[in-house]
Design brief:
The chain is of the alpha/beta class. About 40% of the residues lie in helices and about 25% in strands.
């Protein structure tokens, strides 16, 4: 019968390359590890490794088992972690994944009231997901994904919690600042400043410029919101950002916000695994987020 320790073994051997190192990691003797592997291969009726000198190379059966271990072991780890919080008198750890730069500023408004309402829940924010948040949810690396662009995936669902308009932002003395609304052709000679995001994930391209078969004179990327806005205020370029972000974070800067065509309207979504809203502290986070409209 296939058991969890078998999955730990195959993961350790793949990670470390040799039985000796894998045995050390698992606190087993090499002979005990070899015996366990041989017995498992007999049970399965298929070899899992071929020897390649001093190293081991997975067979097709071994590769399939390793992929399964990579998927299922994080779920075991996540469950044990959560049960550990309960055992210590805590409610849990809410792990939040971020898929957009401005969303972090929105999240900051949620965290303080959430921590006050849930004193036994800790929050951890992970921002390293470069638009692979759905995979992180399915792999139990995060519990909630914050994204403006939900990817419909089996086993996940998304809740729209915060509506906003994406607007063009220019310096207050920029020639375009005299307009209330801009059209794609108005940007033909402009330098567009954005976060380092693929063009296919930028609304100003996908919903404004490309449908009109237009573009800008130049496109540059910047990592941080603060520097991006300072560059726009200094007339080094223009940008497109949520209107709420400009109202709340850049009221002190000489900036103007203009509607993009007929308007680009979006929502911040919360993505979660099916059935997990019934977890009290996850539902609590969603309720606070919905109340921040």
């Amino acid at each position: 019968m296939l058991e969890r320790h078998h999955l730990n073994i195959i993961r350790a051997v793949v990670e470390h390359g040799t039985l000796t190192k894998a045995a050390e990691t698992l606190y087993l003797s090499q002979s005990a590890l070899s015996h366990t592997i041989k017995k498992l291969e007999e049970q399965l009726g298929a070899p899992l490794w071929n020897k390649d000198g001093r190293n081991l190379r997975l067979t097709q059966a071994g590769e399939r088992l390793h992929r399964f271990a990579q998927n299922i072991l994080p779920q075991f780890d996540h469950l044990e972690e959560q049960l550990g919080y309960y055992a210590r008198g805590q409610s849990g750890l809410l792990r939040i994944g971020m898929e957009c730069h401005p969303c972090y500023q929105w999240l900051l408004k949620i965290v303080a009231p959430y921590l006050e309402a849930w004193p036994r829940v800790d929050v951890d924010v992970k921002q390293q997901f470069q638009f692979k948040g759905a995979g992180a949810l399915l792999a139990y690396e995060v519990d909630i994904l914050i994204t403006p662009d939900p990817v419909q995936t089996a086993g996940l669902h998304y809740l729209p919690v915060f509506p906003y308009e994406q607007v063009l932002v220019v310096a207050r003395d920029h020639p375009l600042a005299a307009k209330d609304t801009v059209q794609p052709e108005d940007l033909a000679h402009e330098t567009l400043l954005t976060y380092p995001v693929p063009v296919e994930r930028l609304d100003i391209y996908q919903q404004f410029l490309l449908p009109a078969e237009r573009s800008v004179a130049a496109h540059r990327t910047l990592e941080t919101t603060e520097i991006l806005l300072q560059m726009v205020a200094a007339n080094r370029g223009i940008t497109a950002l949520p209107h709420w972000l400009i109202r709340e974070q850049a009221a002190h800067l000489p900036l103007a916000c203009l509607r993009l065509g007929n308007g680009i309207y979006k929502h911040i979504h919360l993505g979660l695994r099916d059935g997990e809203r019934q977890v009290d502290y996850i539902d609590g986070f969603i309720r606070i987020a919905e109340g921040m409209r």
